[in-house]
Specification:
726 residues; mainly beta; Jelly Rolls; Immunoglobulin-like; 9-stranded antiparallel β-sheet; elongated
């Protein structure tokens, strides 16, 4: 029972067909007129019945063997809804398929309505077929619902007007209670959509109907070749041939002229077997091109360029490998004759003295674009910024009085005109004044090396090394404020020779040399500088007493100790080496526990050249430095104390503290004058002045000039105390 698309079936009856699985066949092979009158059999019985509307005799019209579907209040203004019964079909719940040809002449509104359905009674309809507007101009789409009066799912293909399409609908009142919609299918495996609205206990369908509604606007549809069957194949093949045929391009793509930067869409509409599974390949000048829309009959060029000009075609292929190529659409992309547009104005910027500043503008328009920057109020006819002919201007050595700081603007031009930007102001300021402790935070948390050597910083502190510690035309000293210490290094710094105790303000960048953090300057770099303010050697920071094992705590040493003056107590020298004037001398010292540390003597320091090491020193002190490659691991190696003057090795025993004791009840308060360093003290007690004395407290440190210890366990009997310094 395979028929051609427009072939007419021999019998014009709306009855049970001869095949058991075909329950309705209707070719509308009647004379023109109201279907409820002309749709009769030879014996005069009526096939079609009006179940809604009151036109007299009826405005559901058959014309040229098609039943017309219009709208109440539209251009034609019709209202009757009609149906044809399955006159010899068992009225039980059965899966049914309907199939018919539909042609849309007047397009439906954006939110359309249903026009065909399975009929239960005058108020109950299932498998409703909807028509609504398409996503593209002058197109329409089909949709489906199970029973709702609003569309549930829309078939995702735009359809052309004045074109025949085959619709197949499955209504399942047995298992899924849902309807499925195909458009131009060859098999049930073709692309389809199914309804998602809920249907509860549906009654058996007894016929098939067509509806005309006021919400259809100006819609006009013509339906032909209706078949209802219990199988997909019988419903579909009674209407359209299953022989594989080539698709047809109904609406050809149209080219034209567009401007550079336009969003361009090339659009074509095609129909064919397996409509929902058609593949679309756009070509330019005969070669395939990619489509940002994916497999689509719409080719989108988001921002066209001149290179997009060319001849475009669309190759449409069915799932059965039948293809058709559209007509050629010639696209020409050219520049619009308009001046440039500035989409991003240059922004004002502030930088530190002698740093660079960058101004940037974003402009678009027909090429070629040219740029010219201007400084202050120079007229556009006489640019005064040389080499400033790109979208980005870099101003070097920004300062307050060298014609670099101030207002700037740019003029962007093309062959069609120019556009002047807003004014951007460049300002200069000194680098931020920060503590040395802050500088020591600007390091990698693992290697503790400097992370940014471009920024400039200003730090003020006291020089804590008595001589230059490097060779050549450079200088290296240690600077310490109330928070931390750091090395200060000057390239071409032969004139920078501060004295111990000098207060220095130093401007430079951070770097790491042999793992020692440096604030570095260069006398050839005007963004760096150094100023010596005063000298007060008595204001030198007190050394921080450290154990020789302190380097096991890498974060603490890097954050709190490196670059600062530190002190070792009770020091034993392993050699009586005499320091050299030819190279730096390193000496290893130990304590009673066998721990070791390294002392550094610079060959540049004439005060310590030729110095012979003692056997023992009560204390040694100097800036803590490090001599370790920046990439060497582990990182807690190479620490040294730089000895820059002989008196930093103390071999004379410190004076014995003078004590005073005040007693209240069983509590004794011991007070003594502390040496002005962070020495470690021990307190001992005995019941006899001649001893023996027992240590009751140890490791006491004081940062002021007075040491205090409270003995809460003093007894009523006489008790004698003594305090031991290192």
């Amino acid at each position: 029972m395979k028929k051609n698309l427009l072939a007419l079936i021999a019998f014009s009856i709306c009855t049970l067909a001869t095949r058991a699985d075909v329950v309705l066949t209707e070719t509308f092979n009647y004379s023109n007129g109201p279907v409820v009158q002309v749709g009769t059999n030879a014996n005069g019985t009526t096939n079609w019945f009006r179940h809604s509307g009151n036109a007299n005799p009826s405005d559901s019209i058959v014309r040229n063997h098609r039943i017309e579907v219009s709208a109440t209040g539209g251009t034609v203004s019709r209202q009757d809804d009609v149906h044809c019964n399955f006159s010899s079909f068992t009225n039980t719940q059965t899966i049914l398929y309907s199939s018919f040809i539909v042609n849309c002449t007047n397009l439906p509104p954006t939110v359309g309505t249903y026009f065909a359905h399975f009929y239960v009674n005058s108020t109950t309809f299932h498998g409703r077929v909807f028509a609504q507007s398409g996503s593209l101009s002058n197109t329409w789409r089909l949709g489906i619902s199970g029973a709702n009066g609003a569309v549930s799912r829309v078939f995702p293909v735009d359809l052309a007007p004045n074109t025949d399409y085959q619709i197949v609908v499955q209504w399942d009142p047995v298992t899924s209670f849902s309807a499925t919609l195909w458009v131009n299918p060859v098999s049930s495996g073709d692309a389809s959509v199914f309804s998602s609205d809920g249907v509860t206990s549906p009654a058996a369908s007894v016929g098939y109907g067509f509806r005309q509604a006021s919400s259809f606007g100006n819609t006009f549809l013509a339906v032909s070749n209706l078949v209802v069957a219990t199988t997909f194949d019988e419903a579909a093949t009674n209407v359209m041939s299953t022989n594989a045929t080539s698709p047809v391009v109904i609406t050809q793509p149209k080219g034209g002229t567009n401007f550079v930067g336009d969003s361009v869409n090339l659009i074509a509409l095609a129909t064919g077997q397996g409509l929902g599974s058609l593949t679309y390949q756009w070509q330019k000048n005969g070669a395939d091109v990619s489509n940002g829309n994916g497999n689509s009959n719409v080719l989108n060029i988001a921002s066209a360029s001149a290179s997009d000009s060319g001849n475009y075609t669309l190759v449409v292929t069915t799932p059965y490998n039948q293809s058709t190529t559209s007509a050629v659409a010639t696209l020409w992309v050219t520049n619009a004759p308009v001046p440039p547009t500035i989409s991003q104005q240059p922004a004002s910027v502030s930088t530190y003295y002698h740093q660079s500043a960058t101004l940037h503008v974003v402009a678009s328009g027909p090429p070629p674009l040219s740029y010219q920057w201007y400084y202050t109020n120079a007229p556009a006819t006489s640019p005064n910024v040389s080499g400033a002919d790109t979208d980005t201007l870099t101003i070097s050595d920004v300062f307050t009085n060298n014609d670099t700081a101030g207002p700037y603007y740019v003029v962007v031009s093309n062959p069609y005109g120019s556009k002047t930007s807003s004014v951007a102001t460049v300002t200069a300021a000194g680098p931020p004044a920060v503590s040395i402790a802050f500088l020591r935070t600007l390091v990698d948390p693992i290697s503790f090396n400097a992370t940014n050597s471009n920024l400039r910083w200003q730090a003020t502190g006291i020089v804590t090394s008595s001589t230059n510690l490097t060779t050549g035309d450079t200088s290296s000293y240690y600077l310490q404020d109330g928070t931390a210490g750091i090395n200060i290094f000057v390239t071409r710094g032969h004139d920078f020779r501060p004295q111990l105790g000098d207060v220095v303000t130093f401007i430079g960048w951070l770097s790491s040399f042999n793992s020692t953090l440096e604030l570095e300057a260069d006398t050839n770099d005007v963004s760096t500088s150094f100023t010596i303010w005063s000298n007060n050697i008595a204001a030198l920071p007190a050394p921080k007493v450290i154990p020789m094992t302190i380097t096991n705590n890498l974060p603490f040493v890097e954050t709190n100790l490196e670059g600062s003056i530190v002190m070792l107590t009770n020091v034993y020298f392993t050699t009586n080496t005499i320091t050299s004037s030819n190279a730096n001398t390193t000496v290893t010292v130990t304590n009673l526990n066998g721990d070791s540390f390294v002392l550094l003597f610079s060959s540049q320091d004439l005060d310590v050249v030729g110095l012979e090491m003692p056997n023992f020193a009560w204390t040694v002190s100097g800036p803590l430095t490090q001599n370790l490659g920046n990439g060497v691991s582990p990182r807690n190696q190479g620490y040294q104390i730089a000895i820059t003057r002989p008196q930093d090795i103390v071999t004379n025993a410190p004076a014995a503290p003078t004590l005073s004791v005040a007693k209240s009840g069983n509590t004794a308060t011991i007070t003594w004058s502390a040496i002005p360093y962070q020495y470690s003290y021990s307190v001992q007690a005995a019941s006899d002045i001649n001893g023996p004395f027992t240590t009751i407290a140890s490791g006491l440190t004081f940062t002021n000039s007075t040491g205090v210890y409270v003995d809460a366990a003093a007894s009523a009997s006489p008790k004698f105390y003594r305090v031991l310094s290192p």
